[in-house]
Records
---
Amino acid sequence: MKRLSAVLSGSALGVMAGTSWPTLQQAQAGTLIVDHPGTLVKRDHASTAEPLTYLTDHESIDKTGLVVWEGNVRVWQGRQALRADKVTLDRPAGLIRATGHVAFVQDDGSTLYGDHVEFTHGLKDGIGTAIYLRMEKDARMASAGVRRTNGLINDFAHAVYTACPICLKHPDQEPFWEIKAAEAIQDKPNQTLDFDHAWLRLLGLPIFYFPYFSVTDPTVKRHSGFMTFNVNPHDRYLGTYFTLPYFWAIDKSSDLMLTPLISSKTGPELTAEYRKRFNFGALDITGALADDTIKSNRYRNIFGQYSNRESSGAQGYIFAKGNFDIDKHWQAGFNANLATSSNYMRNYRIPGYGNDVLFSNAFIQGFGVGSFLRFDGQASQGLNNGVIRNADLPFALPRFTYDYMGEPDAWGGRFSVHTTDFDVLRSRGASDQRGELRMQWDRPFHNNLGQQWLVTARLDSMVYHSTHLNEQPLYEAGGKHSHVSGQVMPTVAVKMNWPFLRSFAKGHGSQVFEPIVQFIAAPDSGWGARRNMPNEDSLWYEFSDTTMFALNRYLGTDRLDGGVRGNVGIHQNWTWNGRSIDMLIGESFQQHITHSMPAYSGLEHHISDPVGRIRLSPSRYFDATVRGRFNPWRKKFDYGESLFSVGDSHFRLLGGYVYAPITPYYYYYTDFNTHAPNLPYLSPTNELTGGFTANWGHYHLSAYTRRAMSRKQFVANGGDVGYSNDCFGLDLIYMRQYTFIGGQRRHDTVLFNFFFKTIGTIGING
């Protein structure tokens, strides 16, 4: 026989093991002897093969073999622990009785409290009275009694379940919500809480009756089973529809969500979402198949044509993305988004409908010391058939990008290299290939006067091969056939910042006054006007406070901003006690003026239109940003925008305004009556936005609006009102969009969302 117990500081500490409790024998000096010591085995549930360890202030054993532990008794078996004022071990019956402040920690981490609990077969089976169960996420259950079976099933009688915190000032007050059931079962193998004959009660009032109701056990992080259903009583295209998602936890690193949809106006749909996590990356795939029976009407689009009626019947989509680490320097991935039709996405509320295109790409990229390389391919699928035709969308197959930044050289400068090369293909329109090389050297320094200087030498070079430039998007005359072209532009620039600093408000504030002067010299490019040269990334020219000191103010590199010019600006900043005011104003002076510069660019004269920006944050109750460009010849602003917010954490008013006489075009189209290209789509942008957010305790309210002043119509309106606390949430959301997509415009949308902690969200859409 082997001695396994000891006496420490007046407390008895012992270990008992074996599958048969009667093998325990009495030993002298309060010591328990085990004939066949067990082995500690790690299991997911209780097992009598695991040793039982105890700690108590007092231990006694009578002649009948009854063992009594009293005073701060603690008993452990595997990952379970029992604490009580008194524990009695009836060895012949194999029974453990615990009384007085009983607390039993189960292997899933939940704690069961009771007045009286009895266990058999170790701690596997048992019964208890006046039970209180505390689980993760503050979930709790109270019942008149519990029956424990094989350490896997807890059966509660007359149970009440809630995840709402108990009010400390009024502990007898009803929780905000609770489920009151005749019987509740904690099913550990299936990881569920099942309720029979249950009532959902709000503030003590019965609201809804469930003959049977099941939720995921709050102690479980991932669990297979049905999730919260969704019922929508009215939808423009689906009518009344119902969804019931099923979640399958395949293993610890992958899962699958299946969501069937049944509607009254069209055929069913099945959506599947698969997720997989690897040690070196992640994979997410979502797809669906549907029997779409809705036939859309034809409409006249922006091209003056009637749209093609999209076929009904079998429809579907797939959205997939993956990112993988090849090694510590290289990554690969893809993002694929495809749908059979935009009308199908509209009819079934597929995420992404409302965008102009679905974008897809695949890439491999690497990172080095001061360098980055990426090789990818890109494709797009048009969704808005009113303004986009898929045949006109380009493919970039392939596209190559490389950037390198060197270490400081012997002269204190840094050398950098950039290239973006691609092959753009269009089934209808221009196709071209570009090779680019940009080399740049920057040398910063400062002098004793505090002036900060930056000397830059840069060389841009491109070579192109193109066909069908006479078609969209450029419609270059004489560019029908294969053509090779290119450009080279050296640029030298010197920039000086001269900041002056002073303090005020007795040292609590500081002011920065900073004149900025820049000189740029480059060959005159005629504002980028190059005949028979492709243009894929420089379709608009931007002159504002953000680009005033840029070497190239086009939004790409197919067109280069040349000529001799100087830029001057004044930057000021005041900062005090967490508050600030920041402003910049500047102007450009250019030697060359040509008629090919974009209209309303602000650069129609040798002296540019002044541009400026001011950011105000004088207190936590107000902040604003205003920027614009003023035309002194026309005596009006050619560009302006502003954003502001005012209020505190309880109420905040938001607003904004943007104006531009020309909207940068994103599409050329052809007049099919004359077969001649039309001008770019030009229209003024003059929009006003506004809204507010409000919070009072558990209540919140918000609203927003966008209105196109030039078109005298709204763009979008919406709002949200709701209530939320620690265990419940309710939201009523309203949205209305006035934009036409594919010849259709959404009606009003109303969403009701109910959130119950540990149970889930129930949504109703209208």
---
Amino acid sequence: MPDKSVVVNLNEFERTRRVQVSPEIVSALHNCRDLLIEGSTRVLTRQSEAMENALLAMAERAPLLETRNSYYAAQSTLNKRANELLSACKDAYCTRFNDFAHARDKAAGADMLELSLVDDQDFEITLVVDKATSRLRYNCAEELVALDARMAHLMGRSDLSENDNPLGPRALCEALLEGIGRVQSEQHVKIVLLNQFDLALTTELAHIYQSINRALIERGVLPDLKVGAKSRAQPSGAQGAPASGGTPQAAGADPGSDIFRLFEQLAGGGGLVPGAAGGYPGGGAGHGFGAGFSLVDSLGQLQTGSILLPDGGRFTLPLAEAATIQNVLRSLQRSPVMQAASPLDAVLVDAVAMLFDVVFDEASVPDRLKAQIARLQIPVLKAAMLDRNFFSQPNHPVRRMLDAIATLAVHLPDNEAGNARLDAISEVVSRVLDGFEQDVAIFAFAATQLEAMGTLLDDTLDRTADAGLQHEIDEIKQAERAELAPVIVHDFINRALKDQPVADTMREFLRRDWAQLLTRDYLQEGETGAHFNSHVETMRELVWSVQPKADMDARLMLVRILPGLLKRLREGVAEIDLPQKLSDHFFATLVILHANAVRPNAQPVPLPDISPEDIAELTPAAEAAWNGTASTAVGSDLEPTAVEIEDEFTARARALNKGDWVEFHYDDGTFRWARLGWISGVKNTYLFSDQDGMNSFSIGLHRLADKLRRGEAVLVERKSITESAFGKLLNLFRQKLGVA
């Protein structure tokens, strides 16, 4: 019989399938599009005056000229071109949405062909869009769970993620940014306007999404959908529990996944991981539970209470309370419930139990958060059995939620604010415990809330810390400038005098007297300050003015600049309170030097003398003024200088960036977390603040490296705890199987 099998390119099939959109679906999509963009532009139009007032207020408070200009430019754009701006945003969104509706999205794998380096501006824009998206999604989380599911159902797209929803906050923010860019091209102004639009929509967008959901319900699109209860299509691999064994097929799981292949080997080998009675207790359905036993159903009963045993008794797990940390899955392994579980189920239970063991051993997660994670043990186990992508997908909703909880560790200080944040986390966990049945979408909803909470707390801490540290930053900068001032000032003076035939009286004036003025300017403003550079230029003109002028052009130039030069010199001498006799002697000398500079081929006029008695009397006062200026420094809490050792710990300290966290340990056994808020580019001084951004302290590079070396400081890595735990779990299973 001839082989009539046909090879189908699934990518081409998927694109072809998406093109075939019925007129009814297109009409529904366009209606949703109009509801969103028309509603959003109405909100922005109504809020335009409020946004202008807010921008003016921020401009008045902004300490930097560049920032003030950005706020003023954004306010001017809103005031003069609001209609054009909102029209451009509307057109940009409609264009993007229509591309989606007519399947003009990128072909599968196209992104892999377009990888490129991202410059700083693109990276900044990406961060801004991410933050704006998170804020909007956080305030519309419940509405978006239903809307994401309805859009996926409407388009027949099981792969429609929350960021791919053309009605979602990300699509809206990207379109707004594109529309703003058509009217205003300056990067910082675009960011300011997007932030204002985002804030204006924050309280209104949820109502718009509610109206879109109602419109879809009226068209019969998932009219009975309930948030947290089958609110989205099941993820691939979560097709529900089969009739027996309670172990669904992971249709979407990677069959070559290392960890799941090891699970199957462990299940087939039997007794490789100690469970009840030294091995896996699972032996298939039976032991009085009946052939229809489902471990998943049993977990559902245990999640809310207890399970009835065949002998009439009840089994109840010691469910973790909010204030305790206990691996209840170990109790489950030793329970009668596991006697009816299949070998593979038993391996999965052990794997999830080991996962929680690793998480509970994680030093970077405080006990208060571990207690919240502990409450999720039964729901996480049930989710892992329903959807085995849990083991292979780092961004799985359940893993996202666990990681989001752990990441919030840096925002839990031991005060009322920390307790309030912990209560908010506990509330999210409680909703999962109460609402989870079989749809892992509830974990995605919770993860989104927690991630948005983290983003908002990061933003708040950034603002608080930056404002709180500014005074100390100014003090440290001034202290460092005071230490460097003598070197910097003398370097400028030496460069001005280099290879120049200048009288000793002039050299002495610059190095002893004019240096006071330069030092004061440098302390106040730094090397780029306007006064410092003006007085440096005056010094250079002074040196040039006393050089011989061989031609008429040079003499005419001296005549033109001399009045202004003398005026600036007298003002500078007055500012440093130079003793009158020294001042008179300097200007008398200067008159003769200028006369000699323009006398062609003539015997120079001798310079006036000052008596030795006057020099002995006046010089100490001038030098004292110089020394006092040069040594002026603002008090600093800088720690003592440590031995400069270049090793891996010094490299770790150098690699720290603003926003990184370090855990400092003390002799009494206590520790505290500190956030890096600023690094001095002059002397490598690191300025840290606490978890609320209120208290701060500074430490030098090598002192910090020494603390890292001694274990008195530990870098806090805000990494995925589940990914780290799965890595350890994978190595452990390999060891048990003797796999290299």
---
Amino acid sequence: MSLETTAAPDRSEEPASAYSWYVLGVLVVVYILNFIDRQILSILAVDIKRDLQLSDGQLGFLGGAAFAVFYALFGVPLGRLADRWHRVRLLTLGLVLWSTMTALSGFARNYLTLSLARMGVGVGEATASPTAYSLISDYFPSRQRATALAIYSSGLYLGGGVSLLIGAKISQVWDAAYPGGGMAGLVGWQAAFLAVGIPGVLLALWVASLREPVRQPDDKPGARHPLHDFLIDLSMLLPPFTFFHALRRGPIAAAVNLLMAAAMIGLAVVMIGLTGNLPQWSAMAFGYYAVFSWASTLRRHDPATFKLIWGTPAFICTALGYGLVSLGAYALAFWSAPYAETVLKLPKAELAFVLGGSGAVSGFLGVILGGRMSDWLRARNPSGRIIVVMFGILAPIVPIWIGFTTENATLFYVMNFLAGMFAATALGAAAATTQDLVLPRMRGTATASFFLATTLVGLAIGPYMVGQISELSGSMRIGVLSLIGVAPISFVLLIYAYRSLPQAEATMVERARAAAGE
């Protein structure tokens, strides 16, 4: 399949059809449920901590790396699978899996079983964004893509907000009705997991009815079935297969792979010694080693895709720059409710209603306004979308500082609203930028690579960092305020992305062709 035919279906001038908007609406509903299942842990955290006798660091692991590492790693081969297989079918299967694992979280009796269930949710949810981003990029022209992706991304904030309301209500009603535990001894937080997990299986029937857009067939002679390639891609991430792939590339590649494994093990040992958190740092070391191994193998199997993603500084800096935005956003989304409940002593019902409602509204407004603004700036400046991402990292600083140093509940709620809205503006802009820097056949892989940054940098570190610093300092307030320290790093990365993006996009086909040897 030549690069010319791959690039052809972009249809940048054709307007989106009514059916395109219908598909987008269904995908938003899926994403809302995605984040309800993912974020409901936040409002239940205090009850889970009490019943399972967990520390803040363990809670941070459950809200971050337990989900994020498996979400990120399985997103890589699933993103590649979305580039070649039936995306609607893949999303349907993923929805069934993560909904089932969410329901099974309700039967968790200890830290281990809840961790395993959260890992399963991560694997299932890894199908969502690669398939959705790829479908949206096919259904919407380039000039509307950031807006469409921003609308899809609004499900993140709507789901996150609704999860607080649903989780608090179900757990309180259940505990009031069954003070000693209801059916099978289940308590309120367990019932909440069951209540939000089961409907996803029914939603999968609706998703299965969507039409798959016609794509350029893979006419490479002797092409393997996409599921066969998925298993190969998965083996690129899982030891010891990672070493065998490296060995096939030669003794130098094998030695480099072993050195990377040793470095990650050494880092994990040091950090476990400092923090005492074995699951967090074992998962992080495994995740970063797996990504390194996959990227090294991708370079051999698909040099053009590797060049436009891992070999493009504009892509890497945009992904990492936004990854640090998401670090703060995910940490705030997880810890705002426990902070308000334990530090400000606000009642669970009130904070669930206010934080849930304001989080949904602020995130929705932020991501929609950010998407529209980034499309407007993009039409006038090739790097215009990066300006919106910069705003997303700098603007929340003042609201975070004020909101998490005040004792006034109203001021806390207002500042939390502003911080969430400002951070949300960056998502559509960053996502659309990474899609613009690759060819159409690479979009699923580009999405998976983008989400490696948002998960292995943002979600895996953010909630845990706040929890660990809170635990070490004895102050959850200090833990949250530590998030401000990532802003300068993100800003420097985004400045570089702003400067290098125009040339990277202008030379995209040429660089891919050179890498593929055409």
---
Amino acid sequence: MYIIRKRIVFVCIISFTFSALGQSKIKGKVIDGDNSIPLSNVQVTNLDTKNKTVSNSNGTFETSEAGTYSLKKEGYLEKILELKNDTYHIIQLSINPSELNEVIINSNHIPEKLKKVATSTSIITLKDIELGNDTNIAPILNRTPGVFMQSGALNTNRITIRGIGSRNLFGTAKIRAYYKDIPLTTGSGETTIEDFELHTISRFEIIKGAASSIYGAGLGGTIHLTTKNAFTNQSNISSKLSAGSFGLLKSIINANHGTTTNSFRAVYSNTHSDGYRENNTYDRQTMTINSNHYLSPKNELSFLASYIDLKAFIPSSINQEDYLNNPKTAAFTWKTARGFEDSKRGVFGLSWNHQYNKNIKQITSIFSSFYDAYEPRPFNILKENTLAIGIRSRILGNSKLLGKPFNWTLGGELFRDTYKSKTFENLYRDFPDGTGSVEGNSLSNFKEKRNYYNAFFETIYELSEKTTLTIGLNLNQTSYQLKDRFPITENNPDQSGSFTFKHILSPKFGISYLVTKNINVYSSISHGFSPITLNEALLPDGQINTNLKPETGWNYEIGTRGTIINDRLQFNLALYRLAIKNLLVSRRTAQDEFIGINAGSTEHNGLELALNYQWLQKDILTINSFANYTLNHFKFKKFIDGENDFSGNDLTGVPSDVFNAGVDVESSFGIYGNINFQYVSDMPITDSNDLYSDNYSLTNLKMGYNTFLNKKLNLNIFFGINNIFDKAYASQILINASGFNGNAPRYYYPGNPVNYYTGIHINYTF
């Protein structure tokens, strides 16, 4: 009997031990596949037992059963995968474009559903990016209400948001951009995003107007680029080759390797185009590396590196007669000098994400970038070099205040770049035709140090289940130091000096209210500013104009977003007024010399509407459409430039109406396609409003076939036509252009006529 009892006890111990082992916890974390934000309230369901669990506020979950699981969350595509014992799982969910308002965004640093955000924020998804040929970013941004990008060439662009930046003659200014946490905006406020390989971008989040209190000096708004994260638990390699009109040839190689807690992605691209116009050849190579390392449940590390090698010839703008009769021609002097841009750029960043406890975490990024360029122009040859370093760190907390959820972030950004520039004579006129630019004597030699810091604080407080209050505050100080390293003579005064702005406080107040589960209304008031560049502050006598004031503005906005008609129609509507004072105007004093003056104020009133409708959502076929409309009523409220009074005139360089519409079709048997239409109204070219560009409309089409040849090999073949109806239009205008030596002003950059592209994309998963 004793032996029997002993055996029974032994069997029970063994059974209990195996039962305990069989019920060992499986732990995981669910994140947004693009921006790595932890996703809460994700339903994790065992498809065999139907047992469910839900991820917490940090995206983590636990279950005791190995097996096949489904993960579901509003705004994201369902994911089905195998969960195994003794493994910490990092699970990435992809956003569902048909439920975009439910997506969690991070552009304000406090993760929040798009539909509850109290500012005008737009998301450009990966699907939006893939509607075109991933060579030109302009058509992508131009489908976003309130955003307008003019593109004179692949390397000649200007982005405006709500009219801000339209007066910048060359390039983009008064708008900030970030590549993850790495600033793409220089210390002087200039931004370039078009050089980055579109194939590496998974999402754009765009804050419009002076509402980005956590980013500082961006009067027009902030563009946040999100890189494609590497996939965990997956390894694949893909190659893409496309060709098109005007000698377009582009190749891309993409490699991804991921384990359960580490992922690595590398993308190489090579783009060549002969261009539509003379002196328009474009060559660019890029290399982008992105890795994520989940060191423990509380520590994550990510690394980003991007390198760009670009050489692009510059056809420049042309006068009206050439624009109408010979749009392929380049500006005579630029063609004779064979002007071009030869540049190398690198961006590097390392981010550490540490979870102190369930309520507090810290994200710290250190970054560096460089830019090295050589640009022969008809009037001189420019050599420039920029080296930037910085750190951005923030603490995020979630707690309770009076029993209500209270989320906040507190942080700062330190940035410093050193800019060196030299100019030389261009002696191309002294040599036979076809020689191109020839470097002569030195004309200038500057070294500029530019510094700023931002300290920011933002809170989101849920007053009730339906009402959310947002308060933000940014403190910024910017300073410049200029050293003139050129020999000082009577005709060349010493231009060395320094310029320090006063501290600028930029507050933001917003409130949003859920009228129903699917419809939200919001209102916000926010402040912004744009810094003065040293080029604008320098006077002809070499002194720095310390009386200049930075442009500042207040943004007043009301809006609504949501879904109706059984969640088939998504809508976003915003009405705003952006009032700018201390309008900064660049007055041309010579062919390549400008000075800045404060000339008055502008008033930007506008409406932005975005609609997306699901016509058909079946397994075999989906049909979706979109329509976006932007109404701009931008005026010089007060604008006096010397003896000219332009008060009451339309703001230069911005269309009053922009309309976009399109249809997107996908089928289960692999055939897909989309057609997009854009209308742009006329634009004032001069401050006097005596000359306007013509309105134009463009229609683009893309079709393709996407199929799996087997379980591991995917094939995608595509074909596209841009500007189907061969419309003649100005893709960019140069406002207030002046004619020199009796020549007519060169206002126009001709757009491309009808053009084609085709390609093949192969992906192999190991």
